[in-house]
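Researcher: I'm preparing a figure for a lab meeting and need a structural model of a single chain. I don't have an experimental structure, so a prediction will have to do for now. The sequence is pasted below. Please return the structure as tokens so I can convert it later.
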Amino acid sequence: MRINTLQPAPNSKKSTKRLGRGIGSGLGKQSGKGAKGQWARSGGGVRPGFEGGVMPLTRRIPKRGFTNKFRVEHAIINLDQLEKFENGAVVDFDILRNAGIINAPHNITRLHVLGKGKLTKQLTVKANKFSKSAEEAIKAAGGKIEVV
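Model: Understood. Here is the structure written out token by token.
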């Protein structure tokens, strides 16, 4: 193989439309632009969303609600999901994510523990928030809670 023999893969390069090259080409006379008017002119046409001077749809429809930029998202976990860990284990957000129990997006880094299910093992649970029932159940099982 030599540089002078290199060529593109078959059908990878499409030749451009040759406009205004006679009737037989199929794109002669007005070159596929139709007859006169705004669309036949150089630079013709209107910007996206323009509806001929009528109030555009995006401005006719009312706007509703807002996004609170101070909102803090938590990954939620229940007590029955903590049953998978061994007695005396320390459980935090990173351990839960590595174990595949939490499947939250990467922008969520906080943990909220809720009280659904039963906990029979003594665990040290580190989280940002605990529901009262979860807190009581962890302490009743002989475990500890740490608010991070």
